[in-house]
Design a protein that fits this description.
Blueprint: H1 2-18, E1 26-33, E2 36-43, H2 53-62, E3 66-67, H3 74-95, E4 105-112, E5 124-126, E6 131-132, E7 151-158, E8 164-171, E9 178-179, E10 181-184
The chain binds calcium ion.
Amino acid sequence: MIRHILASLLLGLTLAQDTHFCNDGWELYTSSWAGEEHHSCFWFGERREQVTHDSAKLLCNAMGGFMAEVPYGPHLNNWIVNKLLEKYEKAVQEADTRRPDYGVQYWLGARDFGHHNDHLPGTWMWEHRNTSIEWFDWGDNEPNNFNGQNCLSYLHYESIFGFSEFKWNDWDCDAPADFICEIILD
Ligand SMILES: [Ca+2]
């Protein structure tokens, strides 16, 4: 009998470990490397909750997470961009007016701790992981450090053909932007 209970407890434990889910309002991202699956939850919030980079960090921390980072190249980046595009298209259909592109930005948890300009890429770090950024997805003519921009955001672009995209931008840390939070489940 005890052996039976123990077996079912162990089975329950195994099932719990294999089940990954996010709280309401968060979206599950699954990736695999080195033969293992990894899971994170991402919070995109509502549009127009625009705050400074530091405030966004506090809000993410208050929800038990940290500001989203994109440390491993294009896979996660593409996933996030597609989520942002879904939100953007939905907002456009509902609002029927398009905000200026610089009004459609989302903070990522990264900043430049050195100096950068049109010719110098700078020293960009993921703030939570405390690792240097090795892979970038800048928009055209970015990072331009226009009037001093040391924080990283996704910026919305729209081509003359109506093609929508989000690319990385250096943005004034004290300027307002929406933001993305992350919790690692693993
Ligand atoms: Ca910029």
